[in-house]
Design goal:
9 strands; alpha/beta; 9 helices; 266 residues; Rossmann fold
């Protein structure tokens, strides 16, 4: 009897996103893909977005191969018209929308005195405007459904600590955390909670191109290693899960302690 009860409890936890429908932007690889995969493995239906059509299609194939439910919606997550279409397609395919994760973002390094208007506009449009309007359209759908929901922004430790050559990027990440806090005032009455996570150094396909990345961040991170995408996905899933319905307007740093000491990697 006790083994049956244990199995029942484990099943409830593992499938804690049953009947949930999520959008995850920028999810063709890296952190976004791991979040989408883990949501799907735990019962959610996932609309997976990426600017790269091939990456999006391949990511969905991987999720389907392990028994998950997912569709690819490739497109520019900074484009307002596309965001609206993405929300509409998600709802028409899966019947509802209960989770929106604005993971898509761009990092363009440059010294402050050399930062171009074009680079600045690209960073602002995707990191800030894309996240803002995804949350707006998703929240409108959640309000119409009258079932509440969860929204999550992808911030960064650079929104907390200064980082060389990332003035514009850090500004967007700090802005997202303030947006999450501000929207508590407007979304709470509809049962929508909204939070942000701020990853630190993380091993992804992109950072692996730097052969010194893991060694450098292992040296300056108190936990003696950078995060994995699974570490970040765990935090993301917690904040959009039923376990966190009373947590809203918060930012969770996942950085192995780096912001406590903040040594520069340079």
């Amino acid at each position: 009897m006790k083994y049956y009860f244990l199995f029942f409890v484990i099943k409830i936890f593992v499938m804690r996103f049953n009947d949930q429908v999520a959008i995850v932007t920028g999810a063709g690889q890296g952190i976004g893909f791991e979040i989408a995969k883990q949501l799907s493995l735990q019962g959610a239906s996932v609309a997976l977005n990426d600017l790269d059509e091939r990456l999006a299609a391949d990511a969905v194939k991987k999720i389907l191969s392990v028994g998950g439910k997912s569709i690819a919606i490739p497109g520019d997550a900074a484009n307002i018209d596309f965001i609206k279409e993405m929300v509409n397609k998600t709802v028409s395919t899966f019947g509802s929308l209960t989770i929106a994760i604005a993971n898509a973002g761009i990092t363009l390094f440059a010294p402050f005195f050399e930062y171009s208007p074009d680079a600045f506009t690209k960073v602002m449009n995707l990191n800030l405007a894309g996240s803002f309007f995804l949350s707006q359209y998703a929240a409108k759908e959640m309000v119409n459904q009258k079932k509440g929901g969860s929204i999550l922004f992808m911030s960064s430790v650079t929104g907390h600590q200064a980082h060389k050559n990332l003035a514009a990027y850090g500004m967007t990440k700090a802005g997202l955390e303030m947006l999450a806090k501000t929207l508590v005032v407007e979304l709470s009455e509809y049962g929508i909670n909204i939070n942000a996570i701020a990853p630190g150094a993380t091993i992804t396909e992109r950072t692996l191109h730097d052969e010194n990345y893991e060694k450098t961040w292992s040296r300056i991170t108190p936990m003696q290693k950078p995060a994995t995408v699974y570490d970040i996905a765990n935090a993301a899933l917690f904040l959009v899960s039923p376990s966190s319905r009373h947590i809203t307007g918060q930012s969770l740093i996942v950085d192995g302690g780096w912001t406590s000491v903040s040594p520069s990697p340079y």
